[in-house]
Write a structure and sequence with these properties.
128 residues, alpha/beta, Transcription Regulator spoIIAA, 4 helices, 5 strands, 29% strand, globular
Length: 128
């Protein structure tokens, strides 16, 4: 079962992605399109939190969609990203990290939970 959501928080200029389950090409395309639409509502310099705690890697077509989604986020002007991976999704975390890892032009960090990810970004913002 696939469960995902995309939320653009315009007030905080942040993108929240929650990716759970085993992504096949169709679901990956839907999530990718939702992310592309969401980043259009944000200003350059936005931050991204991706919850991968329930993410299961998909097939090669799904991988290509993930790569395209990460590229869209990069091109829209992401400043920093934190991936909340939890303990159950070590394979998903490694899979997501490998996709397009050489092309990321923004800071990427890893946290155990979305709450930790938010605290990390709050500290980063406060120190600038």
């Amino acid at each position: 079962m696939v469960d995902w959501s995309v939320d653009a928080d315009e007030a905080q200029n942040g993108l929240y992605l929650d990716l759970g389950g085993h992504f096949g090409p169709e679901e990956a395309k839907k999530a990718n399109e939702a992310a592309r639409e969401a980043v259009q509502r944000l200003d350059p310099g936005f931050e991204v939190i991706t919850d991968l705690s329930e993410f299961v890697p998909g097939d090669q077509d799904a991988v290509e969609c993930i790569e395209e989604g990460k590229q869209a986020v990069r091109e829209a002007g992401a400043f920093a990203a934190v991936r909340a991976t939890g303990e159950r999704s070590a394979t998903g975390r490694m899979h997501f990290q490998r996709v397009g890892e050489d092309e990321e032009e923004y800071t990427v960090a890893v946290a155990d939970t979305v709450e930790q990810a938010e605290k990390f970004l709050d500290k980063r913002t406060a120190s600038q």
